[in-house]
Amino acid sequence: MSTSLETAEGWPVYHTAPAAYPQARQHVVYLHGGGYINEIKRRHWGLIGELTTKAPARCVVPIYPVAPLSAADATVPALARLLRSLLEAVGPEDVTAIGDSAGAGMALAAAQVLRDGGGPRPRAMILISPWLDASVSGAEQAAIAARHALYQRARRKTPLRWTGQTRNWKPIGPVPLDPHAHEAQALMTT
C-alpha cells in the first residue's frame, strides 16, 4: 500500500492506494468517528488499510478539525467541497463515502449538502453506527444516558462543542441534517 499526503480545505488529507492493484478505480472517502471531539485512531487506520488492500480501493482520508477547534457550520460544508472535488475528478460511479459514528453523521450531512446543491453524489454510502443527532435531544437518548456514564458525559459536552454552543463560541444549532432523510436511499433521489 502506498500513502501520500496533501492539503485540502486547510486540512491534511491522506491518500492510500493498493500496491498490488495500481489501476484501482474505486475511491473511498473515509470519515473517522470520535464523537466529534476525538482525532483519528489506530483502529480507523486498520480499517483504511483493509479497504485499500482488500477492496481494493483508493482511500481519501481527510483529517478534519474536531470540536472545539471547529464546529459543524464550518466542517460539513468543507467536507462537501472536498467530496464534490473528488466526484468531479473521478466520477460519482467510482466514489463511495464511508463514515464511522460521528464520521457517518458528517458523511450524511455532506451528501445532503451536495444533494441540495444539485451536484453529483457518491455512488454509495456506508454509514457505520451513525451519530445522526448531534443535539442529543431525543427522549430515548435521555433514557440511555441514565444507564451509561460515558454517554452522560458525551451528552453534556459533545453537542455543545460540535454545534458551537460553548463559551466563546457563537451558537449555530445542530449538525444540519434533513429530518426527512432518515433512510440512506433518500440521498440518492432528488
From TrEMBL:
It comes from the Bacteria. One of its GO terms (molecular function) is hydrolase activity. InterPro entries: AB_hydrolase_3 (IPR013094), AB_hydrolase_fold (IPR029058), GDXG_lipolytic_enzyme (IPR050300). Residues 28-149 form the Alpha/beta hydrolase fold-3 domain. Keywords: Hydrolase. SUPFAM superfamilies: alpha/beta-Hydrolases. Pfam families: Abhydrolase_3. This is Alpha/beta hydrolase fold-3 domain-containing protein. It comes from Sorangium cellulosum (Polyangium cellulosum). The lineage of its organism: Bacteria, Pseudomonadati, Myxococcota, Polyangia, Polyangiales.
